Amino acid sequence: MNLFEQITSIKDERVVAARELASAAGRERARKCLLEGEEILEWALAANVPIEQVFFHAKIGEHPLLTRLHAAQIPCYAVTDGILKKISDTAYLIPFLGVGNIAHILSEPTPLQDFVVLLNDVRDYGNLGTILRTARAFGIHDILTTSPQADVWYKKVVEASRGKVFDIRLQRFPSPEAACAELHRQGFQIVATSPRAPTLQSVARLQPKPIALVVGNETEGVCDAVFSQADLVVQIPMSGQVESLNVGVATGISVYELKLKLVMAMLTNYIRSTLGRDVNVAGKLIQQALDARLRSVSAFNSAQVIFLMVLKCDQTMSIEHVGKDMAMFGDELQALLDPLRTEGLIHEESGLLRLTEKGELLLGQFWSIVESTEDELLQGFSADERQQFRDFLRRLHANCIRVMTPQA
Ligand SMILES: C[S@@+](CC[C@H](N)C(=O)[O-])C[C@H]1O[C@@H](n2cnc3c(N)ncnc32)[C@H](O)[C@@H]1O
């Protein structure tokens, strides 16, 4: 594949296909969008948007962006300024134009997160971009719209969102009624907003369940169909005889306040299901199950058997090393090692612990118990699921280490 091929004809099929993307209808048909300019291309790269090709001005020499695109095996075509202007449909020159595939952003998100924003016919490109950027800043991924043709890949939306449009999941509904029905079916409470709502947002009583925040069109506001389905309609108080807030600003205020309120309303559920707690409980249960199996055939527990396995791998270990490896110290560490010494499974020489012959022999027998217990614990998991489960754990370990590593 020639990554820096030249295209000189406006009739080249790659140019013709890219020109289609200057219009909303073309983007909709192709499920692709134009990535106009260096900054937008950088945002798309950072968000892992599949970039199918990039057209760049033939006069550009070596350029760091081209080097990165080349390294990512993205075909880049040198073209004239006339071709670039035709593709972008502008009178001015944009020296880099990419084609990004956005089908994944539109794939149905299952399940939705606990807080979603439903755009009820919000139209202004700047407002759309601001809302997407604000939503991502508050950890929201799922943006829903009541407009089946909502097009958020127009350059002005991409710019106003600072590229966050590439980092959302967009679900478009055929009508406001369809959106509300689906949200209720999925257990959401619908919180609509209006400058004339009867309830102040800050004192609204939320139910302890996921929120769909609805914000309305710049002129008409939220439509009647949504109001009639809403569980709550809330207002952000204003003074100074202002009629309403800009919808982007109102969304920011509502997301911030309602997210906080939702956390408080759902606190007990959240605490019960934090990742750390779930993994901790699972880890303890696994250990207890293994202990139960081992105790039925020996006087040793899972920590001792796991230590014997580690010692077999490392050959020798200092007591200090054992403490660190098993996260045990003082009396607890002695209680782990003493029975193994007394039974002659390990011995100590010049401050280093080793497995004895008896220890090696017993370890072989313990191993089959560990293996069969693990098999029981993973009962009902297919071979693929077992592999996936191990992969998930490995990725979780790597992420934990990344979180613990101080940032440069
Ligand atoms: C410019 S306003 C629409 C004004 C429209 N004439 C109306 O009365 O609803 C656009 C959207 O921003 C949100 N909004 C604006 N001001 C608000 C306020 N004070 N309280 C709650 N939501 C507000 C609502 O979602 C509203 O539909």
Describe this protein with a few key phrases.
Alpha/beta knot; 14 strands; Arc Repressor Mutant, subunit A; 408 residues; binds S-adenosylmethionine; SpoU_MeTrfase; tRNA_m1G_MTases_N; 7-stranded parallel sheet; 16% strand; 60s Ribosomal Protein L30, Chain: A; 3 domains; methyltransferase; Ribosomal_eL30-like_sf; alpha/beta; 4-stranded mixed sheet
Description:
This protein has helices at 13-19, 24-30, 38-46, 64-71, 81-88, 125-137, 155-160, 176-185, 224-229, 247-265, 267-272, 275-295, 302-314, 319-326, 330-342, 357-377, 383-404, and strands at residues 32-36, 51-57, 76-79, 96-101, 115-120, 142-145, 169-172, 189-193, 199-200, 211-216, 232-235, 316-318, 346-349, 352-355. With 408 residues, it is of the alpha/beta class. It has 3 domains: 13-101, 2-Layer Sandwich (60s Ribosomal Protein L30, Chain: A); 106-270, SPOUT methyltransferase, trefoil knot domain (Alpha/beta knot); 275-377, Arc Repressor Mutant, subunit A. The strands form 3 sheets. It has a 7-stranded parallel β-sheet, with helices on both faces. A hairpin with a 2-residue loop joins β13 (346-349) and β14. The radius of gyration is 30 Å and the shape is extended. Residues 193-195, 215-216, 218, 221-222, 235-236, 238, 244-245, 247, 250 line the site of S-adenosylmethionine. S-adenosylmethionine (SAM) binds next to β10 and α10.
Radius of gyration: 30 Å
Give the number of helices: 17
Count the strands?
Answer: 14
List the domain count as a whole number. Answer: 3
The first-level CATH class of the largest domain is given as: Alpha Beta
What would you call the structural class?
A: alpha/beta
The small molecules bound here are:
S-adenosylmethionine
Report the end-to-end length measured between terminal Cα atoms. Answer: 38 Å
Here the CATH topology of the largest domain equals: Alpha/beta knot
The biggest beta sheet reads: 7 strands, parallel
Low-confidence parts, pLDDT < 50 over ≥5 residues? none
Give the strand content.
Answer: 15-25%
Oligomeric form: single chain
Strand order in the largest sheet: 7-6-5-10-8-11-9
Mean pLDDT: 92
How would you describe the shape? extended
Give the second-level CATH assignment, the architecture of the largest domain. Answer: 3-Layer(aba) Sandwich
Portion in helices = 40-55%
The CATH superfamily of the largest domain bears the name SPOUT methyltransferase, trefoil knot domain
